[in-house]
Amino acid sequence: MNVLEAEGLHTFYGKSHILHGIGLTVGEGEIVTLLGRNGAGKTTTMRTLMGLTPARSGSIRMLGRDTTGWPPYRVAALGVGFVPEGRRVFANLTVEENLRVPLERSGPFTVDRVYQLFPRLQERRTSRGRQLSGGEQEMLSIARALLLNPKLLMLDEPSQGLAPLIVRQVFETVVAMRKEGISILLVEQNVRAAVEIADRAYVLEDGHVAYEGRAAEFAQDEERVRALAGASA
Ligand code: ATP
């Protein structure tokens, strides 16, 4: 069963036509990665799926419902979590306060459970958001999304700007979340790390799907990986 099925999404920012008929699926229990160069439309795709920047045409089904045209709060209440790019933690609130902000949907993830998963956050409970390292802020953003007990979690570049060791921890967390039964859509610039943990990959180019396939197959296409990963690879 698919937890996400999107077809023919066309999204605009004003007059700029950004998504040109994107279609993608995420199966139950899958990790699917969405790759592409800067400006390819990855963030816009996630914003469209969440209802933050609604599509002008196309259809979206998530968790068995037709969510086309739904506002973000309804999509979230259905069980779709979103961790936006740039870790929007509340700088002046403590870690604990940040975790108490979201509406908790009932399910296995409670604040205590989240502290078990992220012991570092418990140690930093009384620290303010702005005092955390980039890695700690990312963990806090993910922890906050988990309190919604999502069935489907969308993560926008969680490894951005993090040191390699911390990147590894973030990716381990993503794998751990899948073990908890959460399906994942992962936008990443870190191509090699993303295809290592993903089941399937999509590559966006100029608002189109340019490639779709098994992540393991994509990982072996050295030329494609290098082209996407750029100079950093
Ligand atoms: P990045 O890795 O840089 O975030 P991306 O693949 O996520 O890239 P998007 O952020 O979805 O790409 O951007 C797709 C296109 O939409 C880009 O050309 C960008 O300049 C444009 N764009 C993004 N946000 C807006 C906006 N609010 N208004 C107008 N154009 C925008």
From TrEMBL:
The species this protein was found in: Ramlibacter ginsenosidimutans
GO BP annotations, alphabetical order: L-amino acid transport
Organism ancestry: Bacteria, Pseudomonadati, Pseudomonadota, Betaproteobacteria, Burkholderiales
Domain (ABC transporter) ranges: 4-231
InterPro entries per record: AAA+_ATPase, ABC_transporter-like_ATP-bd, BCAA_Transport_ATP-bd_LivF, P-loop_NTPase
PROSITE patterns for the chain: ABC_TRANSPORTER_2
UniProt name for this protein: ABC transporter ATP-binding protein
Keywords: Amino-acid transport, ATP-binding, Cell membrane, Membrane, Nucleotide-binding, Transport
Family of this protein: Belongs to the ABC transporter superfamily.
Family annotation (SUPFAM superfamilies): P-loop containing nucleoside triphosphate hydrolases
UniProt GO MF annotations: ATP binding; ATP hydrolysis activity; branched-chain amino acid transmembrane transporter activity
